[in-house]
Amino acid sequence: MNGMENKLGGPRSAVRFELLVLIVLVCSWHGAAVGGARNTDQRPSPRVDLLTTSLNQYRQFGAPVQERDRRGKFVPAIWYARLGGDLQVPHARHRVARPADPLIPVTLIVTKPSPGFGFGERDAAEVAALIRKKEFDKALALATRMTQSSPNDPSGYNLQGTAYLGKRDRANARKSFQKALKVHPDDAIALENLAQIDIQQKDTAAARKRFQSVLAKDGNDVPAMLGMAQLEFLKGDDKAALGWFEKAKVARPQAVDPRLNIAAYHMRRGNFTQAIDELTEAARVIPGNAEILNLLGQAQLADGQSESATATFKRLVAARPDAPLAYYRLATAQIGTKDPSGAAQSLTKALQLKPEFVDAAVLLAGLEARANRYPEALKLAKQVQSVKPGSSTGVVLEGDILLAQERYADAAKAYEKAFSISPAGAVVVKLHAARTRSGNAKEADAALQGWLRDHPDDLLSLHYSAAESAAKGQNKLAMEQYRRVLQKDPKNQLALNNLAGLYQREGDPRALETAEAAYKLNPESPTIADTLGWILVEHGKTTRGLQLLQSAFAREPKNPEIRYHLAAARAKSGDKVNARKELEALLANGEAFPQRDAAQALLKQL
After folding, report:
1. pTM recorded for the entire structure
2. DSSP three-state, residue 212
3. Domains within the chain, CATH numbers bracketed
């Protein structure tokens, strides 16, 4: 083919892989996937933990590729792990997470032109650099000159098409890639880029034919394999997609993307050990790669390995000392290892590199507030407001800090301002809490119920209202509200768990089956195991109930309610010696908890 072969490792492979990366990168700039993290293990608490709130609220979450972004656009599946954001961390406490900020850019293979044509390596590299910097007009002008000087080389047309995509001009992008095919009918870059446009325009059949055409010429073409995986994801066949990723990994062991996506596949299913093994091998085969280290650290964090994640993110910082996100990642791991000082230093460095890095400022404000350094925390909140004047983020953060200071009236004013900027259920909940604690309970309740009347599908606010009703002893109202939540979200574990507890309190026979349903969804939750275990004990099924309570206590030994339930279950089973030991240990520290009086009475009986 006169130097024009398309095999990986051939003269044009570097240009080809560069362009495929560029085109998907361009597509991803125009939309990022968002997903919801469900609160599955949390009892309502009157205390605001600002650090936990900020850490979880601003932790990004990568959605499955079948989900759409806010503009209804599919995000390319093959870049799930890279551009789709971080993966879910278990027990995140806020239902909706924000899109990730891709601060560690895609690592691109150096662009090299096809031999024997008029333009040089410098021109092609310059166009690629301009596209990465989103300077699409300049990139387009230079790519057009390349097509004029070398009209028989498809590379210039491919770069031209990628620049058009950056300008969201799919029609001209398609024309450019079609011109590339006219001069070289088998050009894999043009075929794969046209396939991506087909996918964006929902013509997956055409995209599949193009990818298959490439693979018919070269069965080891990695970008085409990734494209086939993308199509399988869109079809909902995750296992078939995984098969393509595995094939791509075998075809090109040094390729980053197949390995990232294999790990992401396992992480989406909660198989963190498999993901860690995959990424550990990837880090060995491709040492120093920032994207691999980034995802490996996240997998370790999700698996509860904070120490290992800290070590990994330190390697990431060493590999990318200029990347603010690397220091942010390190900070999240350092918080997990109870190193707030180190986390604060990492976040400060991230903000030095990028003063407008809102997530870092929010997390640092949480650290400052937890250390009672409220002036410093408020200063950071004002900084967020200055860099994002049209957003409610900084104003909500200010309210959170004021609430942590127990300045309830001032916090309410901040939340009112935030609500005026961006009316949302999360702000309504915070505003209700601040107003209630400032002595305006009637006003707070009226505003919350008014919001729920106008927004009946806002499950966050409905959840909160149900918990408030239960706390006030309004059990029937709380049960009705939890049932409304479950009508919209039948597998909501927290609603099932709390409804089961209310049923038991009211003597409703549905208590046990409801608790069993919650446990079936999440048998690892100590809160859910405690609820089911206690209901079983009260129903006379002490043996299984005691087993569940022992399991719950092993996972959460500092929870006084679980320990009381365990002691009461031991007493009921006849094990008075161990029941007495549990109660004595429970009451020794003077900690207040709802069942303290009952625990004292039971101890006297024993």
Report:
1. 0.71
2. helix
3. 1-32+102-218 (1.25.40.10), 523-606 (1.25.40.10)
